[in-house]
Amino acid sequence: MINFAVIGLGGAGENHVRTLGEIPGVRVIHVVDVDQKKARKVAKENGVSKVSADYREALNDPDVQAVIVATPPFLRKEIVIDVAKAGKDLLCEKPLAINLKDALEMKAAVEKAGIKSMVNFGARNLPVFKRIREMIASGKYGKPMWMWVKYMLPATKGIFVPPNWFWKKETGGGHIVENAGHIIDFVNLIMGPSCEVSAITETLKFTKPCEGLKIQPNIEDIAILNLRHKNGGLSTIANGCISQGVYGINLDLTTDKCVISVRKTKEVYVEEKGIVVEKFKTKTQWNPIPFGLRTFVDYLKGKTDKIATFDEGIEMLKIAMSAYDSASKKKTVKIQ
Fold it and tell me: Which DSSP helix (H) or strand (E) runs through 248?
């Protein structure tokens, strides 16, 4: 039995606690949140015996073997470093941090401690994305040449209004860091490492990102990234958090043999010469957290080593930071 502590019980953290309760061979024994009313509620609903407001109490708990850090991004650095010092295995929500300096310090601490660690880029394991990865790896569908991805998250009551920290650059890092992170990671998996980016960011007047919020956002609500990959391929990412549009992922992946398309995050089509030759559908839409968590549990149990590493989390941040640099300078920039 692997005993977990979950630090941070917002939407992601509560999802982690609930999902762990459905996985054989693991259990949550300690939850942490400064909102003690919320923490006690989550603990009661999920049969968790220990509740703390200070994460250090969970790290000092000798029964805890693995820790999930699901706090807002700007709080993760200190916690992750302390988790590493405590010698607990670690799953950190994406993004690792809101800047590269913090992320690199987190990576150094984890490597020094020698613990097992992973970034929760769970979207790479969603059924439709996993199928595409397997298709490309097989070689049957050709070499990827160009990919475009649209990910829209309507910030509307009744669908999903992100928490207040999401809408501030200094706490969430911005849309490209927080919201597009899954997509940047997936594009890099399929197309290979990125070397250049040209980006445009904007806050469009006809959107309503403030619905349900009590603060004034200071980040963009839409971003378009054009990436050049080291192998010569190209990709385009359009990401927004707006009140209009279909929630989920649409993409086209053009290879030298066919076009692989995803619609609404659950349908995959393969076209050759304009004719659909294959179809794949799933009921699963956009809920990446459980898929990443199950991968992490398999990693801890020695069943897989195919995880999202801290290096990949840092690579995503490099692309995101370079995109902001490009948007500011209004020119293409190299990704260092």
Answer: strand 248-255
